[in-house]
Design brief:
- Helices cover 42% and strands 16% of the residues.
- An eight-stranded parallel β-barrel has the order 4-5-6-7-8-11-12-13, surrounded by nine helices. A three-stranded antiparallel β-sheet has the order 2-1-14, with helices on one face.
- The chain has helices spanning 34-47, 59-72, 82-89, 99-119, 135-152, 169-185, 217-228, 261-276, 299-307, 317-334, 354-357, 359-380; strands at residues 14-18, 24-28, 30-31, 51-55, 76-80, 122-127, 159-162, 189-194, 199-201, 204-206, 234-238, 288-291, 310-315, 388-390, 393-394, 397-398.
- By secondary structure, it is of the alpha/beta class.
Length: 409
């Protein structure tokens, strides 16, 4: 089924992002490159919206994210973690050297590339937190990007994240610079984290003093200064009191207390330093910021973060619950027919229950529930209706999306 199409003959559908200011931008549907990701984020930053990023662990979760984005006419970010990628590969696959995590991430990226064009959705394909101990996973994905780039002139993924926030700032930044120099040559986007986000994500756990959950503007400036010398295609996840997952707040309350106004100070610091150095800086928000640990946060705090330059917000805990809740609600509604293959729980009426326990039925309920939560996140971040499909035409007729495979000539 795979078409081996030379680079010069590749045909792409495009989408148009629209805002209240009527500004537009055209990019291809399917998986975006690093440059295209930066274009999308720049438009989001200047037009006051952000794109939610959803952790996916299966083709099912990827498909329901694509479905929601298509119906909402929104660009979307799909991302995988080390453990999520390993699950995608199969829990029985050996992962001592993170082989399964690499394979699962590549498989998820290939699935997204294959399906996103058919859904007509522009996608940032991203890998989530990569701590120092997980660098072999990062190296494996980067190798896949290199192989894909040799054949097609674009990377397999759009973007990767390095989370070395557990390390000293100097080591964190130096490692990011080393990898970013390689990534820039492949047209990849980099996300990095400085300062510690509370809670736990893929084994990276913060248990220190609560004051450590706030990144200082000087730290953000050092990152911007180092990475902007290589490429503008990067974002910074700066901590402002946020937590991964849903937890009791430090004061014992039920909500995490964020200080999104701190993000504005980061932007002001960068602008001031650039001005001091004699570099032109027209924007009041010169860098791309990312919000982690948004679950359980007040919507007003999230909107304030977006106002200060957040262009991406991670969503995982809430969509995990939504996926499960779809199955749970289905079970509650149909439990009498889910105890055996024929007959009800307490009767022998002879009626088969296959249409009740068929995985395609109850998994679909999970997908619909998760898709609904994806749509809610798109609405909260102002990303609804930000593109309109514009199919590529040939002889006046729409050209069907093509499928790429990694093939070597």
């Amino acid at each position: 089924f795979f078409d081996r199409i030379p680079k010069k003959k590749l045909v792409r559908k495009t989408f148009r992002i629209m805002s209240d200011s009527k500004s537009t931008i055209e990019l291809p549907t399917g998986v975006l490159t690093g440059n295209q990701t930066a274009e999308l984020f720049a438009h989001a930053k200047e037009n006051g919206y952000a794109i939610p990023a959803f952790n996916c662990t299966s083709s099912s979760t990827i498909n329901c994210v694509l479905e929601a984005a298509r119906d909402a006419k929104s660009p979307i970010i799909i991302q995988v973690s080390t453990s999520g990628a390993a699950f995608y590969a199969g829990k029985s696959v050996e992962n001592g050297g993170l082989e399964a995590s690499v394979l699962g991430a590549v498989a998820a990226a290939m699935h997204t590339r294959t399906m996103s064009k058919f859904y007509g959705v522009p996608v940032v394909m991203h890998s989530d937190h990569c701590a120092k101990k997980l660098l072999p996973w990062f190296d494996g994905m980067l190798k896949a990007d290199e192989e894909y780039f040799k054949v097609y002139g674009v990377p397999l993924f759009s973007s990767h994240m390095l989370d070395l926030s557990e390390q000293k700032d100097d080591e964190n930044i130096a490692t990011c610079v080393k990898y970013f120099e390689k990534m820039a040559k492949l047209n990849l986007f980099l996300e990095m984290e400085i300062g510690e986000t509370g809670g736990e994500e893929d084994g990276v756990k913060h248990e220190g003093d609560i004051s450590e959950l706030f990144t200082h503007p000087d730290q953000v400036w050092k990152v911007h200064q180092a990475l902007s010398a290589i490429s503008p295609n990067f974002s910074i996840a700066a901590a402002f009191g946020n937590f991964h997952g849903v937890y009791k707040a430090p004061d014992g309350g039920n909500a995490v207390k964020l200080t999104p106004e701190l993000l504005g100070k980061h932007q002001a610091k960068i602008k001031a330093e650039l001005t001091k150095a004699g570099k032109e800086c027209k924007s009041s928000k010169p860098t791309f910021l990312v919000m982690h640990g948004g679950s359980g946060s007040e919507k007003s705090e999230i909107l304030e973060a977006v106002k200060n330059g957040v262009v991406k917000m991670n969503v995982d805990t809430d969509t995990q619950w939504a996926y499960w809740d779809g199955v749970h609600q289905y079970y509650l509604k149909n439990s009498d027919r889910l105890f055996k293959q024929i007959g009800g729980k307490d009767n022998e009426d002879g009626k088969p229950n296959k249409k009740k326990y068929d995985p395609r039925v109850w998994i679909r309920e999970a997908e619909k529930s998760m898709a609904k939560r994806v749509t809610e996140a798109l609405k909260d971040l102002g990303a609804l209706g930000k593109y309109a499909p514009k199919p590529e035409l040939k002889d006046g007729k729409p050209v069907a999306p093509y499928v790429r495979a990694i093939v070597k000539s």
